TrEMBL record:
Positions with a binding annotation for Fe cation: C105, H147, H151
Enzyme class: hydrolase
Co-factor requirement: Fe(2+)
Enzyme Commission designation: 3.5.1.88
Keyword flag Membrane: no
Pfam family membership, one: Pep_deformylase
Gene Ontology MF terms: peptide deformylase activity
Listed CDD domains: Pep_deformylase
Keyword Transferase included in the entry's annotation: no
Protein name as annotated: Peptide deformylase
Primary role: Removes the formyl group from the N-terminal Met of newly synthesized proteins. Requires at least a dipeptide for an efficient rate of reaction. N-terminal L-methionine is a prerequisite for activity but the enzyme has broad specificity at other positions.
Species this chain originates from: Salegentibacter chungangensis
Catalytic activity: N-terminal N-formyl-L-methionyl-[peptide] + H2O = N-terminal L-methionyl-[peptide] + formate
């Protein structure tokens, strides 16, 4: 089932999310719905707060980035294989010199900006079967994971912009929260919710 994606301005996007256990109600169904929702919106990642759940759960499918001609074969293979569910994730290390890449977000449609992130991460997480993993990711794979990880920490990519950039997009962000945008996927807008 395709769920509405929560728009910028909703308090759930600012919550530091809670860990979950195996007995979280209808977890398999929730994960399946999140995959369907993400693909319907042409996303490469989706975090639980983006569908209104303040829990430490996010999905990533970085394979669309594998089509980029500017990346080497090793990174292309890593991106093709990166289709995972991350539960109770913790980034334990970020390394290297920060680099910029143009990011967007399903909760903040129509805004794309360069964001600086470190090129390598080490992450610990559980999969859908609650099996523990500790993995290292680099390049675009690391970036996609960092973006989704930020969501479960209550951080948005716009928080990482300079104060000048933030001022320049302030009006656009306000319009998003009021639902004054054209999008081709289901969204839930905080300002419209208040008006009811």
């Amino acid at each position: 089932m395709i769920l509405p994606i929560v728009a910028y301005g909703d308090p759930v996007l600012r919550k530091k999310c809670k860990e979950i256990s195996k007995d979280y109600p209808k977890l398999d169904e929730l994960i399946e719905n999140m995959w369907e929702t993400m693909y319907n919106a042409y996303g490469v990642g989706l975090a639980a707060p983006q569908i209104g759940r303040p829990i430490r759960l996010f999905l990533v499918d970085a394979s669309p980035f594998a089509d980029d001609e500017n990346i080497d074969e090793k990174e292309r293979e890593e991106l093709k294989k990166l289709k995972k569910t991350f539960i109770n994730a913790r980034i334990v290390e970020e390394e290297g010199e920060e680099w910029a890449f143009n990011e967007g977000c399903l909760s903040i449609p129509e805004i794309r900006e360069d964001v600086f992130r470190k090129p390598q991460i080490t992450i610990e997480y559980q999969d859908e079967d609650f099996k523990e993993h500790r993995e290292v990711y680099t390049g675009l794979a690391a970036r996609v994971i960092q973006h989704e990880y930020d969501h479960i920490e209550g951080i948005l990519f716009t928080d990482k912009l300079s104060s000048l950039k933030k001022r320049l997009i302030k009006g656009k962000l306000k319009n998003i929260s009021k639902g004054k945008i054209k999008i081709d996927y289901k969204m839930r807008f905080p300002e419209m919710k208040k008006a009811r």
